[in-house]
Amino acid sequence: MHIATANLEIQREPFIRPFAFKGSAFHEKWNLVVRLQDDKGRTAFGVGGLAVLWSDARVFAAHSEVGGNALMVAVLERALALVRDRSFVGQREIFRQVLPEVHAYAQEITRQPDLRQTFTLNALVALDNAAWVLAARESGTATFDAMLSPGERGLLKHRQQHVASVPAIGYASTPAEVHAMVELGAYLLKIKIGQPGDQAEMLAKDCEWLSHLHEMLKDRETSMTESGRVLYYLDANGRYESVEALLQLLRHAERIGMGERIVVIEEPLVEELAVDVSQVPACLAADESLHAAEDVTIRAQQGYGAIAVKAAGKTLSLALEMIQAADAVGLQAFVADNACVPILVDWNKNVAGRLPAFPGLKGGIMETNGRENYGAQAWRRMLAEHPCAGARWLEPEGGGFVLHDSFYAQSGGILADPKPYSGLFRV
């Protein structure tokens, strides 16, 4: 694979309201679009959405929202400079060769010598996606399955017919919005915890928040979980500074009858807190603290039970490595989102549909919160612009995505040009 040219464009998609987590919030999604062309004139596009607050909250706090996004743009532009007029042995080599140098550059421009590598990975998603599509076009590959190595196909061998569409309930979500989610069939709800304030204030607010939500949802029933009840997925985004504080939250959940409904708690503790969590009576999942496949093994040794895979947040290349690492140490892998636009939802969906069913549910799971963050009108517009507009599997039915053979045959449309993003380039 010889990359002759590499170009970049930006598209900004506003949220209908601030997307709040980690004790802060951001207001729009910057979608970066990469166009690669090889020496035979074949062209491929990749889209990647930026999430500065999620990837390194220190960078978000040190800059304006636009400034933080601009730093990520600079990181991707540096990566494109490194791949222009160079040859690589496939898309995986692009990722492996570029990441170290680009991360060093990101540390320099953010003035964070210990910058979380997730920041750099998030900036590289558009390039990685474009490289996968270009590799597929060079080899004549027509499906997601055919792009994978034999080992990867063995791990991603499932064909879930139903994947839970997991909406996110943020601090700003209203009771009417929560009720609307379950009326539409949602049976696994992602609840953002770790609210603003010091640790005592945060814990008090989180306990009150869980009580409020469980009172609304405790009697909801569904046929898509083993228990017949709506289940919960908590996400602290690394806000808890001690295991004891987390245990206090879970004791409160038990007192109100919520404990047995919590199937996973994602990224509960600050990343620097390298402690054993096996005493916590819940499945804990690592997310943004996973920067490399080696981190999966470390989290398993600490007592974590699952990992959140973000093909659209940290690159498909790394997601595949992490799935292999999780399988080696017996951790459950599932797919999560960060306000992805529809074409990126389908990059995630291709992974989610091929993973094993999630414990306690009758199928796979995939967090997707675009409709809640962009609003129904904007979401309908984006779905209409999808390469497979009108496909049944684009929108959830009964709380989940119904993935029939047509989805797998078309790979969710990810190998087609991602219009309208591909039309942004002037020349």
Provide a compact summary of the structure.
By secondary structure, the chain is an alpha/beta fold. The protein has helices at 52-55, 57-62, 65-83, 91-110, 117-123, 125-139, 144-147, 150-155, 175-183, 199-217, 243-255, 293-302, 311-314, 316-329, 342-352, 370-374, 376-385, 405-410; strands at residues 2-21, 24-38, 43-49, 86-87, 162-166, 168-169, 188-192, 231-235, 262-266, 284-286, 306-309, 332-335, 364-367, 400-402. Helices cover 43% and strands 20% of the residues.
Please characterize this protein's 3D structure.
The protein folds into 2 domains: 2-143, Enolase-like, N-terminal domain (Enolase-like, domain 1, 2-Layer Sandwich), CATH 3.30.390.10; 150-416, Enolase-like C-terminal domain (TIM Barrel), CATH 3.20.20.120. It is 43% helix and 20% strand. The protein is built from 18 helices and 14 strands. The strands form 3 sheets. The chain has a 7-stranded parallel beta sheet with strand order 6-7-8-9-10-11-12. Helix 10 (199-217) packs parallel to helix 11 (243-255). The two termini are 23 Å apart.
